[in-house]
Structure formats: C-alpha cells, structure tokens
Amino acid sequence: MLYLTKDLFPVFVPLGVVGFYRYLWFIIKLLAYFFYRPMMPKSNPTYRAEYDVTIVVPTIDAGEEFKEAAHSWLANNPKEIIIITETKMKDALQELANSVDPTKIRVLTVPKANKRLQMVEGIRNTTSEIIVFADDDAIWTPTCLEYILACFEDPNMGGVGTSQTVKSVGRYQTVWEVLAGFRLTIRNIEIAASTHIDGGVCCLSGRTAAYRTCILQDPQFQYEFTHDFWLGKYPLNSGDDKFLTRWMVFHGWNTYVQICKEAELLSTFKNNWRFIKQVLRWTRNTWRSDFRSLFMERRIWSRHPYVAFTMIDKIFNPITLLSGPISVIVLSAQDKFHLPIWDIIISYVVWLMMTRIIKLLPHLFKRPQDIIWVPAFLVFGYYFAIMKIYALFTLHEVGWGTRAACFCSLYPSEKIKNWNSSSPDDKKSLLPGATST
C-alpha cells in the first residue's frame, strides 16, 4: 500500500493514522473478548427459575415461531410466562398459548399496540423476583435462565443480557440474515469486551434481558418509561432496551452480559430488504440514547468510562470509515497516482476485503460458508455509514418502520403540542390506561 501511495505519502499520513487507530481499537476489543469469562451458576443458587422468574413477552403478531420459542422458555422451567398483546389479538394469542401450555402461559391485553405499555402491564402483573423480557421469536438454550440467574448473586446486579446468533427463517440463510449474523458476531465481541473492561454495556438487548422486578415496579420508572419523548414532543415506543440500560446505569445498578453457549439465544431477523429498515430504527435509537447518556445524564462517564468512549467512537465512525474510499476515489479521478487506476482500485478493494475477513474470523470459524458474503458486508458497511448520517438528521422519525402499528397513533397531535406545558397529572391523561383480561 505504501508503494501505491508513495507519490502522495503526506496526503495519506492522516488516513494511515486513522487506520492504525481503528485496528488498534479492534485488537483491544478482541483481547478483552478473549479474556472475558461468563459468571458460572452456583450449586446452591439464591434464585431458582421455578420460583423467581416471570417471562414477559410483548407481542402483536406472534406466529408459529412463537411455539418453538415458548417451548424453549418452558424448558427453562420459569414460574410463569405472561404474553401481552392488544385487545383485538387476545383470542388468537390465547389459542396459541393454549396450544403450548395453558397452565403456565397467561395472556393479558392493552387497548392498542404499544410495546412500552405492554411491558408495563406485564411488570404490574409479575409476582416473582426476576422479570425476563423476551421477543416472541427468541429461542433459548435449556440452560439460559440458569446462567442469567447466576449474575443476580451480586445484590447490586440490576440487569443481565445474553449473546445472540441468527436463526434462519428458511432452509438457508439469505444475504440479509448473514449480514445480521456478521453484525451479531461483532456485537458479541464488543459487549463481552466492555463487560470485561469496566462492567458496562451500551445496551442490554431487548431480545432477551432480565431485571430485578423491584426496580421495574417503581412507579417513577413506569411513569418515565411510558412518558419518554425525544426533544419533548416525539413519543418513543421503540428503544425500550436502551432506556432500561440507561436506567440501570443512572440509578447505580450493575449490568452484565453472559457471552457463552449456555446462554446464547437464537433469533430470527428480516430475511429481505426490510432488514435495512430494522437497522435504521436501531441506529436512530442508538443516536438518541447515546446522546442522552453522554451529554444529559452523564453518569456513564464515571461508572463506565470505556463504554462512554465507545459511544464517542461511534459518533465519529461514519466519518473515519468513509474518509478512505472518498480519498481514493477523488485522487484517482484527478489522476494523482503513478499507477494505472485499475491497479489502485483492485489493490484497495483487496486490502479492504482482507481487513474485513480478519474482523469476521470469529464468525467464519463457525460458518465458513459465509465467506462468500464478505463483499456484501463490505458494501453494507459503507451503506451503513451513510445511513448513520441520515439517521442523525431524522431522529424525529420515531415509527417502527417494520410494523403497521405506531406509538404515535396513541398520542393525538394536539396533546403532543401541549405536553411541555402540562402538569404531571395532565400528562398521565395522555396515555391510554392499560387493562388486563
């Protein structure tokens, strides 16, 4: 690469420094990942699933995949499973629950589809010490709860997450599912590293995460959780897992993530272009949550400085990622190199492919057949950088993107406009009351 750029060496020095930083940062994460160890269950644990765990599942459109997921939850022997859906879906969900286990699965409803209201309804109806939120397609290992509960031996432990991997919707994984798998591999490395370095994590993924019930049954938590507005006027429904993670950090509770086969969950992802909409929603949630953590709440700086630094790093990541190819394209167009343009382009692409393969080695060791999709991951990486910039300027868009139901429909526009001038009692009236059936 030095030979390719020798005529413009001073121009590429800053890019080289950026590249050195990025891969040094990756090596630090990788080393921390290798030194990370999960918490092991005790022979005489304080908490037992059959007495102390309620699984809460907010859903509106659970299908056949729910049965497989529910059977995997029941294999962990929880005290109870509570499904919360909207009123019009009650009969369909009840029939689905009865086909699995009517003695352990209870179905509750809220008037309209709204994930946070559904979660709060589940919280209010929980009588166990630990609540585990799960997506309706999250498939657990038989030892998942045992390893989750091991972390709660620490009396200051507030929330616990798990590692994840992709479950194919069809017989084979589509390119979109492989991309999701690549992202999960990198995420598992990052959260294991942050957990090992300073005990923090950017987000306890809502696909499966456990919390102490006493924290979530606090009326102040429930009020703020269901009255969460971006810039005071855009009601947030998604991003519940980010909110929960920030709540743990701000209120002095510890968090942990169990990165191990015993606590790894399988989850389905969109197997078509709608995966991009999922990623866009997650990206907006990340921007909003990270800004709040870093600049409004600010507790993250003293409790988990490594995690705070990773958040800052992600802010500038799109710029550093795009700087390389933009520089090569501009200088090639200006004919600034001493070699033919195709030599430059091919050499640069080969270099990028090699570096991406190195980053994905933990994934490729498990699924070597996915190596054919590394070029797609390379292209998606640059698309994602542009998407992050776009997401930054569209944070006011709070819809799910992949669902017909939208949190915004629960809030008439005239009520949203008057939100900032309302008293706490008036604000409560803006939210539809949740009722159980």
Automatic annotation (TrEMBL):
Q: Where in the cell is it found?
A: Membrane
Is the keyword Transmembrane helix in the record? yes
- Pfam families in alphabetical order: Glyco_tranf_2_3
Q: List, alphabetically, the Gene3D superfamilies matched.
A: Spore Coat Polysaccharide Biosynthesis Protein SpsA, Chain A (3.90.550.10)
Keywords in UniProt for this one? Glycoprotein, Glycosyltransferase, Membrane, Transferase, Transmembrane, Transmembrane helix
Q: GO: which molecular function terms? A: glycosyltransferase activity
Q: Does the keyword Protease apply?
A: no
Q: Which GO terms describe its cellular component?
A: membrane
Transmembrane segments in this chain: where?
Answer: 12-36, 306-333, 339-358, 370-393
PANTHER family cross-referenced by the UniProt entry: EXOSTOSIN-LIKE 2 (PTHR47844:SF1), SYNTHASE CPS1, PUTATIVE (AFU_ORTHOLOGUE AFUA_7G02500)-RELATED (PTHR47844)
> Could you tell me what this protein is called?
Nucleotide-diphospho-sugar transferase
